[in-house]
Specification:
Layout lengths: L10 E6 L3 H13 L5 E6 L2 E6 L10 E8 L6 E8 L2 H30 L9 H22 L1 H16 L1
Antiparallel strand pairs: 1-5, 2-3, 3-4, 4-5
Helix pairs in contact: 1-4, 2-3
């Protein structure tokens, strides 16, 4: 089984001798199968997979797949990228954006305080925002570790489906 590299959104590439249409059809069949524990949605050669509701947790990953034939290649490649559920992903993005904006405004306010020859007391916000961002980053690392088995399970289901 392939090792998942330490990235914010781990990814992998699988090669297949099937055509893109055949590979997509097999993957869609996997999604519609009641026997497995994978569910998802598909639009042509783009698929979004997750575990079935009874198997899924707060930290469970989602797998985005893109099936395509590379120019000049005789094989089809399936590009996979893991991510948290879209609502969690958006929540993290908004919190990071808010922390960055709050830090920027704090620095601007502290600069104006300094220009007025006052103590730039607003600077205390910056280390607090940095600490919160670091805590969130640490949380993502912990969550990825908790979801590692599920990521391997999703990747194995895709690999087995394409090798049949």
């Amino acid at each position: 089984m392939a090792t998942i590299r330490p990235r914010l959104r781990p990814r992998f590439v699988l090669s297949s001798t099937l055509s893109p249409d055949e590979a997509s059809a097999r993957l869609e069949k996997l999604l519609r199968s009641e026997a497995g524990n994978v569910k998802g949605q598909s639009v042509k050669h783009h698929l979004l997979l997750s575990l079935r509701d009874q198997e899924r947790h707060f930290w469970s990953p989602w797998l985005q797949l893109e099936v395509r034939a590379e120019i000049g290649q005789s094989e089809t490649r399936v590009y996979g990228r893991f991510s948290p559920s879209p609502s969690i992903w958006m929540g993290f993005a908004l919190i990071y954006l808010s922390l960055g904006a709050l830090s920027l405004f704090a620095v601007a306010f502290a600069t104006s305080q300094w220009m007025l020859e006052r103590t730039p007391s607003a600077l205390w916000v910056v280390p607090i925002c940095s600490g919160a961002a670091f805590a969130m980053w640490t949380g993502t690392r912990i969550g990825r570790g908790m979801a590692a088995d599920e990521m391997c399970e999703l990747q194995k289901a895709v690999k087995d489906c394409l090798e049949k």
